[in-house]
Amino acid sequence: MDNKQIEAVQEQMALEAAQAWLKQLGYDLTIEQVINLKSLSAVGGTQERAAALTTENMRHLRVLKNLETLELAQFGNDDWVANAAGLTKMRSFVMLPASNLTDRSAAVFAGWPELVQLMIHGCTITDAGFAKLSGLKKLKRLGLQYANIGDASMPIIGQNTDLENMTLSFTKVTDAGLPHLYNLQKLTYLGFQSQTLTPAGIATLRQKLPNCKVVYP
Question: N or C: less crowded end of the chain, CB within 10 Å?
Answer without folding.
Answer: N
